[in-house]
Write a structure and sequence with these properties.
497 residues, alpha/beta, Rossmann fold
């Protein structure tokens, strides 16, 4: 009862991992759990929430929503009434269990390269969260290597095992040091698949293979092109680009553009497995009202405040337009503080810059937007753009190949880097709700056809299993995507017949 009362007041909960508390405290969503008697675990959980007030507020809001949805007294009364009526009528209740707890893990999988889970900081962390938990539900044992400053002190999250390791908080060393430590650790564990994410971590993909493990690299984008990197860092990431296609057993890319890039530049085939999203419904406004926003009356940008995202271009175009609509930009700097600070100089009553937003607040912010804008110069396959389309929000994006590939006829484009064209499209879409509505219907249809997380996770699992099937085949150390695709089509035809 005390946990539910805390939720009702919008407070995050820290509780020992006993009995019914595990059913009430959703680890990382509404609070944190610690092992009974573990004083360091308790202290670490309290310290984490004290230092991360944003996470504490998000967990508190999620707890309040949980009470509203599942523990409302009226809903409790109605459930009891239905149960009594069933008993009185002697109608046995049939239930279908979707629990995978009874299945033995089929594969032991390790994720390396991202910051961790719980807080969806960027594309890799979202990938970890969405793919990792679904692989765990399928019966696989998933271990996520996390940076200790980023992920709360816990052993498990959504069925995934968390392993926190230290690193050096530095723009150039953070990822390298953590990936090296993670690779050394995983080399001496029982693991079937080591899955690296991004170009930098790809440099280490050969090491687990020396210990008999299969390795996979997912390329989310050509990171060396990001303007935040200097000459040396860019050169190292260019090596990572080559390593990503040459060192692992299987290379995955998130877009056709990246697939063609590797084909044209390296004569090698990468397996296309896009990022995913969910089909979202509009959330009732609560958090956005506190930010002074009205549903359907603001333009939204989500992502890092970094130069290649061209946030300044969006602000410049918006400032030229006289409208009651507001511009909201939510994200963080990711070692681009000078650029982010320059953007904040433009804040006023109509332009609002928020820090990273997640959880229920993010769902509200996204689903209630009038228009989502992505003015980037560089993307792999934008998760923010996917999320906006899945939420039924009209999208406007720069016409780089990766954005064109995703949007096609389900949204609108403007000329990359052209502030005049961006202004023109903003004026058009702000003034024409019918055009926006038609685009949202097409976007939802496109997302459901190709980009939902369950479908994406199924493709990743198929690639993993294919790798393990080839374990004993001599001279076939790399996964051939064309073979995988052709066999997949053959199985589909066989199933149809």
């Amino acid at each position: 009862k005390s946990i539910l009362e805390s939720y009702a007041m919008g407070r995050a909960v820290v509780a020992s991992d006993l009995g019914s508390r595990r059913e009430l405290v959703y680890e990382g969503k509404t609070g944190l759990l610690f092992r009974p008697g573990d004083i360091e675990g308790l202290a670490g959980a309290i310290a984490f929430l004290y230092e991360r007030q944003d996470m504490a507020q998000q967990m508190g809001a999620a707890g309040r929503e949980l009470v509203r949805e599942r523990h409302d007294p009226q809903a409790h009364h109605e459930t009891l009434q239905r149960l009594y009526e069933r008993l009185a009528n002697d109608q046995p209740q049939t239930t279908t269990s979707y629990s995978f707890a009874g299945r033995k893990p089929e594969l032991k999988i390790a994720f390396i390269g991202g910051r961790g889970v719980v807080s969806k900081y960027s594309g890799i962390e979202t990938y970890y969260e969405e793919v990792g938990k679904r692989l765990a539900e399928m019966g696989h044992e998933v271990t996520v290597y996390c940076r200790n400053y980023f992920t709360p002190p816990r052993l498990e999250h959504n069925g995934m095992r968390l392993l926190r390791l230290p690193t050096i908080r530095s723009k150039h060393l953070e990822t390298v040091v953590h990936t090296l430590l993670s690779t050394v650790h995983v080399a001496f564990t029982r693991c079937d698949i080591v899955h690296y994410h991004a170009l930098g971590p790809a440099l280490f993909a050969f090491l687990p293979r020396l210990f008999g493990k299969k390795t996979v690299v997912t390329v989310q984008g050509l990171d060396w092109q990001r303007r935040k990197w200097g000459r040396i860092a860019s050169a190292v990431l260019r090596l990572g680009e080559q390593a990503a296609i040459r060192l692992p057993n299987c290379t995955m890319v998130v877009s056709r553009t990246l697939q063609e890039y590797y084909r044209n530049n390296y004569g090698a085939e990468a397996l296309l497995v896009p990022n995913g999203t969910e089909a979202r419904e509009v959330r009732e406004p609560f958090h956005i009202l506190k930010w002074g926003l009205k549903p359907g009356q603001y333009i939204l940008f989500l992502g890092r405040f970094s130069p290649e995202k061209n946030c300044h271009l969006l602000i410049e175009a918006f400032e030229r337009i006289h409208t009651s609509v507001k511009l909201v930009m939510a994200g963080g700097s990711s070692y681009s503080d000078a650029y982010a600070n320059a953007l904040r100089q433009h804040q006023n009553g109509k332009i609002r810059l928020l820090d990273w937003v997640s959880g229920e607040a993010l769902e509200e912010l996204l689903t209630n937007a009038m228009l989502f804008v992505l003015p980037s110069d560089l993307e792999g396959l934008s998760l923010a753009l996917l999320d906006a389309m899945g939420a039924g929000v009209c999208v406007l994006a720069s016409d780089i190949p990766e954005n064109r590939e995703l949007v096609e006829e389900a949204g609108f484009m403007f000329k990359r880097g052209d502030v005049d064209d961006l202004e023109r499209m903003l004026r058009l879409l702000i003034s024409d709700p019918q055009v926006r509505e038609e685009a949202t219907r097409s976007a939802r249809k496109r997302i459901r056809a190709r980009y939902l997380w369950p479908q994406v996770t199924g493709e990743i699992e198929s690639a993993y299993l294919k790798l393990m099937d080839w374990k004993e085949l001599a001279g076939a150390e790399r996964l051939d995507p064309t073979t995988l695709v052709s066999e997949k089509k053959s199985r589909s035809r066989a199933d149809a017949s």
